[in-house]
Amino acid sequence: MSERRENIGHREDLRSRRKLVAAEVQALRDSIRAALPLAGEVHEIDGEHVLSLSLSMKEKADELAGLDRKIAILTRELDG
User: Fold this and answer.
1) Residue 53 reports pLDDT greater than 90
2) Cα separations (Å) of 45 from 20, 26, 52, 58?
3) Mapped to the 3 state alphabet, what secondary structure does 15-32 carry?
4) Residue 25: which residues within 8 A CB-CB, separation 6 or more?
5) What residue ranges do the domains of the chain occupy?
6) Per-residue model confidence (pLDDT) at position 33
7) According to the model, what pLDDT value does residue 1 have?
8) Of 30, 31, 33, 73, which has the most beta carbons under 10 Å away?
């Protein structure tokens, strides 16, 4: 298989992975929002749970940024 075809396949794999990670980030965001009710009392917030969700979301957001960089690099190579 040619290098170009390999790069196209790799980019498509990265794009698929990106969709999954983006969905995970959105789900974590929604969970954080649910854990921080607008009308709730501050003392009712489970800080450890919110922190855990936030750390997970940060890790996934970093992974998403890395995937975006790799996709951009492959796209430049394929288009250039």
Assistant:
1) yes
2) 29, 21, 13, 20
3) HHHHHHHHHHHHHHHHHH
4) 57, 60, 61, 64
5) 3-79
6) 95
7) 66
8) 31
How many Cβ atoms from other residues are within 10 Å of residue 25's Cβ? 18
Under 8 Å between Cβ of 60 and 3: no
User: Residue 54 and residue 64: Cα distance in Å, rounded?
Assistant: 15
Q: Which residues of 34-73 are buried (b: 16+ CB within 10 A; e: fewer)?
A: ebeeeeeeeeeeeeeeeeebeebbeebbebbeebeeebee
Closest among 59, 56, 53 to 33, alpha carbons compared: 53
Q: How far is CA 8 from CA 14, 15, 18, 72, in A?
A: 10, 11, 15, 12
Residue type at 25? V
Give CA–CA dist 69/73, Å, rounded: 6
Q: How far apart are CA 66 and CA 74, in angstroms?
A: 13
What is the pTM assigned to this prediction? 0.88
